[in-house]
Amino acid sequence: MADNENNPPQPSGSWPIPGEQTDELVRAAFPLRLGLVEGKVALVTGAGRGIGEATARLFAVEGAAVVVCDIDGDAAQSVVQSIQERGGEAVAVVADLTKEDEVAAVITTAIDRYGRLDCAVNNAGVSGRFGSFIDLPLHEWQHMINVNLTSVFLCLKYELGVMAAQGFGSIVNVSSGAGVVAAPGLPHYTAAKHGVLGLTKCAATEFAAKGVRVNAILPGTTRTPMINGFINGDPAMEKMVSRGIGRGYMGEPSEIAESAVWLCSDRASFVCGESLLVDGATVCR
Q1: Which end of the chain, N or C, is less surrounded by CB atoms within 10 Å?
Q2: What confidence tens digit (pLDDT) does each residue in 133-150 have?
Q3: Is 21 among the domain residues?
Q4: Which residue among 114, 158, 189, 249 is the active-site one?
Q5: CA dist., res. 50 & res. 29, Å (int)
């Protein structure tokens, strides 16, 4: 059941209000759901907060059973409880996705519980510390590549195996604007997110004829807990962060989630190998 089904919040004035947009306002603008993924089984990684959490919730609202995967078990369970309280179906799975045996266990859990896996959104990742290219320690490079790229490879490896055997499935990898343009001061993050697009294209090419669609979304600056912590309630800092966004203000996690769930739905049946910018005209190419 949608969060706003009974008492949808009513935005005042024109919608959206630059700089004042919230997930509640986004949901209010789309009060009717279409069951885009009705009856499907969806896995979302990094689903304990931010974009992953919004995606898991939207899958449930649109009719899917959701495997909520996060390294933080308490966060994953909190999302599951919220989904269940609204009449949805979900299960929490804790995993370090840089470890192959734990990735395999996540997929096994989904299959054991629901019998198949229709959709997967590989969202788990970390941000990096800004700094000069020449001052980047090797251990920070390796950690970034492990969490933001190797984990995607491992998830794809096991998701594709299941979906190819089924003869159907849809996967969305979460990259970034840094997947197509440089993020100065973040060479490790830039490399990892470029790499995600490479994995997406290879997987799409190999598995399209087997009934599996693989795409990527590239979110722009989004109001996640990480960004909120960086801004720390400072209007001047928020203005600086928003300056490079074409529409003038940040995205909401629910806006990013809409693109991921649509790509996983049958409405996107001919979309495969796509890298979709979801960034309010930040990167236009």
Answers
A1: C
A2: 999 999 999 999 999 999
A3: no
A4: 189
A5: 20
Q: Is the dihedral of CA 193, 194, 200, 203 positive or negative?
A: negative
Q: How many domains does the chain have?
A: 1
Rg, the chain, Cα only: 18
pTM of the model: 0.88
pLDDT tens digit sequence for 261-285: 999 999 999 999 999 999 999 998 7
pLDDT tens-place string over residues 202-256: 999 999 999 999 999 999 989 888 778 778 788 888 888 888 899 999 999 999 9
Using the CB atoms, write b or e for 242-269: b if 16+ within 10 Å. Answer: beebeeebbbbbbbbbbbbbbbbbeebe
Q: Which range marks the domain in which residue 55 is found?
A: 33-278
In tens, the pLDDT along 173-217 reads: 999 999 999 998 999 999 999 999 999 999 999 999 999 999 999
Is 122 within a domain? Answer: yes
For residue 92, the cross-strand partners are: 68
Q: Is residue 6 part of a domain?
A: no
Q: Which helix (H) or strand (E) holds 252?
A: none
Distance CA 84, CA 152 (A): 28
Please state, rounded to an integer, the average pLDDT across all residues of the chain. 90
Contact (Cβ atoms closer than 8 angstroms) between residue 122 and residue 173: yes
Q: State yes or no: is 189 an active-site residue.
A: yes
- What DSSP state is assigned to residue 251? B
